[in-house]
Design a protein that fits this description.
Blueprint lengths: L5 E6 L6 H11 L4 E7 L5 H10 L4 E4 L5 H12 L2 E9 L6 E3 L6 E2 L7 E3 L6 E8 L2 E8 L14 H19 L3 H18 L47 H25 L5 H7 L5
Parallel strand pairs: 1-2, 2-3
Antiparallel strand pairs: 4-6, 4-8, 5-7, 8-9
Helix pairs in contact: 1-2, 4-5
Length: about 280
């Protein structure tokens, strides 16, 4: 009691059944925090990142084995002392939407990013949570911090849309109702088209008007290699025959047979010329 349980999920392999795992995490995790760590090029980054968001933890990617010690040490140092937990954002009455939801915990050395959508930005925001087991709250003033004509704000709507789409996809993965999932799919599609974003239901298509071949020429097809992820190694099955050893033994036998044949030619007695003449006389 009074302690925050934290789970670290570490893997170097691919995870394919994302949806089933998302539902299991949502049903069984409770107040436990989930941290995911992917090592190498094979892990499913989408699953690892979304699972960490559901568990209000963080996702750590380790691309090289040499980085394992450094990044794992940094992860352990950060989760040993969470700064703020159970964060919630209190907005004034109005038509506001914010993402991500739920808000992740805040750890030492990390930042909290919240994207809010509304017609008018409130003058201040109320952020509350738990600090060392005690109630904590703070007022964040926003009045005058943003200008409506500032050219640097052009990408803010895209940032909010990305976070909102991620929340909608999480809800869709956790829902078992077909109608609800169809409605969420429509919301994702609408947001992606409105903000020109790539999603599971939309993509960016580039159309090249320059022809790559003459119209009257036939197409040539060939097979492409299915390359595995970088760093992946596959060994031969343990039931395979020792092909390399058998090849070496066969080559050695051929060389031995050749040497014996040459030795036989060298030591074998040669027939005399007179014997050959007597066997085949010439008659005048």
């Amino acid at each position: 009691p009074g302690r925050l349980r934290q789970v670290i999920f570490l893997t170097d392999g691919a995870v394919g059944n994302e949806r089933q795992l998302f539902v299991s995490i949502d049903n069984k995790l409770g107040n436990t925090r989930l941290f995911t760590v992917g090592i190498g090029s094979a892990p499913n980054s989408y699953f690892m990142r979304r699972a960490a968001e559901l568990g209000r933890g963080t996702f750590t990617y380790i691309g090289k084995l040499e980085e394992v010690s450094e990044k794992m040490t940094a992860l352990f140092a950060s989760i040993e002392a969470p700064v703020l937990t159970n964060l919630s954002l209190n907005l004034p009455e109005g038509d506001y939407e914010f993402a991500p939801s739920p808000l992740p915990d805040l750890y030492a050395g990390s930042a909290l990013h919240i994207a809010i959508k509304g017609r008018d930005l409130p003058e201040q925001l109320s952020l509350s949570g738990s600090l060392n087991g005690k109630r904590w709250s703070s007022e964040v003033k926003t009045a005058g911090s943003l200008g409506h004509d500032d050219a640097k704000q052009r990408g803010i709507h895209t940032q909010w849309a990305r976070k909102r789409i991620a929340d909608l996809l999480n809800q869709s993965n956790l829902s078992r109702d077909t109608e609800t999932r169809d409605a969420l799919r429509g919301d994702v599609l609408k947001l992606a088209l409105q903000h020109h974003l790539v999603s599971p239901f939309t993509s960016l298509v580039a159309v090249d008007i320059t022809p790559v071949k003459a119209v009257n020429k036939a197409l040539h097809s060939h097979r492409l290699k299915t390359n595995p992820p970088k760093g992946t190694r596959f060994g031969l099955p343990k039931t395979a025959t020792p092909m390399a050893l058998y090849n070496a033994i066969g080559l050695l036998c051929l060389l031995l047979a050749l040497c014996l044949y040459r030795f036989y030619l060298a030591v074998a007695p040669k027939p005399d010329a007179r014997e050959l003449a007597s066997e085949d006389p010439i008659h005048a």
